[in-house]
């Protein structure tokens, strides 16, 4: 990987490719098959991809973290988390419904969400996570790689906005003690498909807050009060199937849920 | 498949006892038992436990294995298995544990139930909750007398459900205060989580696992008795222990327990 940022035209070209894949629900080839792009270029592509959503009248919703579990980071051969941009069109109401036809090959994973309590200019803050977030909620993220077969390298997934596709946020509660080891039960149709702990998120999900703010500063993202921080997954993701109810409960924080409508024959077929 | 002859049971028990005595892992015993003959496996396990009791060990409880769906699938079985805990397998929190005592140790974080009453072959979840005096945080050290953990279901059952030892924490909690299924667990090594999970990973709830055990061991003729310590099954993936060092298991709402492995010399004392 080269270290410089590629030309604006290449960034826009790659962003168009990813945006078209999402808009047409058709997976595309990995960028890394045709281009050697640096991590900085990948983040530039991500900014351009998110920019296209904002140009379609979405507004910024928050930041998500990826590779917050040791095993996932090891699989990708990285030692640092990555961030993606959440926009308003990704928000799925708690208890709401998604349609498989709006996605390529979506998966869901159980997470925690935090809410920023104040505006933060890049680089402005360097203190305790609990000083800048005022609420926590059980959450789920819907990830949907724009690449065929959900296969990507580090630059690919960063350019693809870290597969960000949907966010379901449960009821906000004040930040309490002991968020570092809460049981997380991830269920589809009432069947447990993942039993984990918030400890899987960087050992303590509050570290994800610090990491998100640090990464946002590095990539010049301004954070405002109310920004949602999706902290990372507590268990592996599961592929979504039509006609299922998906829920996550976090010990002491309650439950968040959504249902999946549509037809299974659409999903996966979009990989071809 | 027919029942293996008594000679095969004895030969399998002798192979596993010799491996333990000499500290050299043996080949699997499924050549003698058949890979899927669970009853033959328990016959070998009984033989080994009887031998150790004759030599002065005392049975203090049981352990439940194969309580996670993914591990059951890997073994091609749809039920857990169990082994017998002997007094010299029970270690106290934070004592030094000589690695040399084990062959290919792995650790897993789980909860121990200490029974205040007997349980019968009809034990329901309600009976288990009523009979449980208290629960303790625990780290089970699993081990295999079979080289490279090359085991099928009959091998692990014969080998006392691949048990090694257990470190018991000292923060007893009443079940009436806890919904075990919903609680989180993190097993830390060098300050980093190396295994995370929740009580639900153990057959939906550790209480379900103990209820299964109560019925299974009663059916096999040795029902659970008051005072027994029951290791109910792992809350997260097991982790190989390859070097001296310590592992801290933390359970939401229950407490923590530490297993500290040292290279040699000072052996932990059974408690």
Task: Provide a descriptive summary of the structure in words.
The complex is a heterodimer of chains A (272) and B (271). The radius of gyration of chain A is 17 Å and the shape is globular. Chain A has five helices and 13 strands. Chain A has 272 residues and is of the alpha+beta class. Chain A has one domain (8-266): Fumarylacetoacetase-like, C-terminal domain (Fumarylacetoacetate hydrolase, domain 2, Alpha-Beta Complex). In chain A, a hairpin with a 3-residue loop joins strand 12 and strand 13. Chain B has one domain (58-262): Fumarylacetoacetase-like, C-terminal domain (Fumarylacetoacetate hydrolase, domain 2, Alpha-Beta Complex). Chain B has seven helices and 13 strands. In chain B, strands 1, 2, 3, 5, 6, 7, 10 and 11 form an eight-stranded mixed sheet that branches. Chain B has a five-stranded mixed sheet with strand order 4-13-12-8-9, with no helix packed on it. In chain B, a hairpin with a 3-residue loop joins strand 12 and strand 13 (255-262). In chain B, helix 1 packs across helix 3 and helix 5 crosses helix 7. The radius of gyration of chain B is 17 Å and the shape is globular. The chains are: A alpha+beta (272), B alpha+beta (271).
CATH class of chain B: Alpha Beta
CATH topology of chain A: Fumarylacetoacetate hydrolase, domain 2
Largest sheet of chain A: 8 strands, mixed
Strands of chain A, total number = 13
- Counted up, domains of chain B total 1
Q: Can you tell me the number of structural domains of chain A? A: 1
Considering residues with a beta carbon less than 8 A from a beta carbon on another chain, report the largest interface and each chain's count. Answer: A-B, 19 and 23 residues
Number of helical segments with 4 or more residues of chain B:
7
CATH topology of chain B: the name is: Fumarylacetoacetate hydrolase, domain 2
The CATH class of chain A turns out to be Alpha Beta
Low-confidence stretches of chain A: none
Residue share in helix of chain B = 25-40%
* Secondary-structure class of chain B: alpha+beta
Question: pLDDT average of chain B, as an integer?
Answer: 95
Largest sheet of chain B: 8 strands, mixed
Form type of chain B: globular
């Amino acid at each position: 990987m080269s270290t410089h940022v590629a030309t604006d035209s290449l960034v826009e070209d790659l962003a168009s490719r990813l945006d078209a894949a999402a808009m047409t629900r058709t997976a595309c080839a990995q960028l890394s098959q045709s281009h050697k792009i640096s991590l900085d270029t990948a983040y530039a592509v991500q900014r351009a991809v998110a920019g296209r959503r904002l140009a379609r009248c979405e507004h910024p919703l928050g930041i998500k973290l990826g590779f917050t579990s040791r095993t996932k980071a090891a699989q990708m051969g990285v030692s640092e988390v990555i961030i993606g941009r959440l926009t308003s069109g990704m928000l799925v109401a708690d208890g709401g419904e998604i349609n498989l036809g709006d996605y390529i090959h979506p998966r869901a994973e159980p997470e925690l969400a935090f809410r920023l309590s104040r505006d933060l200019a890049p680089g402005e803050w360097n203190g305790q996570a609990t000083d800048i977030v005022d609420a926590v909620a059980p959450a789920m993220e819907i990830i949907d790689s724009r690449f065929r077969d959900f296969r990507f390298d580090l630059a690919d997934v960063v350019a693809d906005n870290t597969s960000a596709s949907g966010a379901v946020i449960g009821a906000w509660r004040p930040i309490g003690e002991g968020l570092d080891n809460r049981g997380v039960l991830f269920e589809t149709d009432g069947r447990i498909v993942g039993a984990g702990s918030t400890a899987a998120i960087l050992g303590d999900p509050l570290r994800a807050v610090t990491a998100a703010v640090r990464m946002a500063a590095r990539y010049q993202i301004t954070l405002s009060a109310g920004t949602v921080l999706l902290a990372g997954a507590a268990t592996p993701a599961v592929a979504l199937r039509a006609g299922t109810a998906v829920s996550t409960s976090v010990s002491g924080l309650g439950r968040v849920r959504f249902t999946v409508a549509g037809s299974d024959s659409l999903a996966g077929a979009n990989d071809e | 498949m027919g029942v293996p002859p008594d000679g095969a049971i004895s030969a399998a028990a002798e192979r596993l006892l010799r491996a333990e005595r000499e500290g050299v892992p043996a080949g699997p015993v499924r050549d003698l038992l058949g890979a899927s003959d669970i009853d033959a496996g328990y016959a070998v396990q009984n033989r080994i436990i009887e031998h150790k009791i004759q030599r002065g060990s005392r049975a203090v409880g049981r352990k439940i294995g194969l309580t996670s769906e993914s591990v059951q699938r890997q073994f091609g079985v749809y039920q857990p298995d169990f082994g017998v805990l002997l007094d010299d397998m029970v270690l106290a929190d934070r004592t030094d544990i000589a690695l040399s005592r084990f062959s290919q140790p792995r650790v897993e974080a789980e909860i121990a139930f200490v029974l205040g009453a007997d349980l019968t072959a009809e034990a329901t979840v309600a009976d288990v909750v009523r009979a449980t005096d208290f629960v303790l945080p625990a780290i089970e050290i699993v081990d295999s007398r079979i080289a490279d953990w090359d085991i099928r279901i009959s091998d692990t059952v014969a080998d006392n459900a691949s048990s090694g030892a257990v470190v018991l924490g000292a923060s007893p909690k009443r079940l009436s205060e806890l919904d075990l299924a919903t609680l989180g667990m993190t097993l830390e090594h060098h300050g980093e989580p190396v295994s995370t999970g929740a009580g639900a990973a153990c057959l939906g709830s550790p209480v379900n696992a103990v209820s299964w055990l109560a019925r299974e061991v009663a059916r096999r003729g040795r029902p659970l008795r008051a005072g027994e310590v029951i290791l109910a099954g792992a809350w997260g993936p097991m982790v190989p222990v390859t070097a001296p060092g310590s592992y801290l298991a933390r359970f939401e709402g229950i407490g923590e327990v530490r297993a500290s492995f040292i290279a040699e010399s000072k052996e932990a004392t059974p408690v």
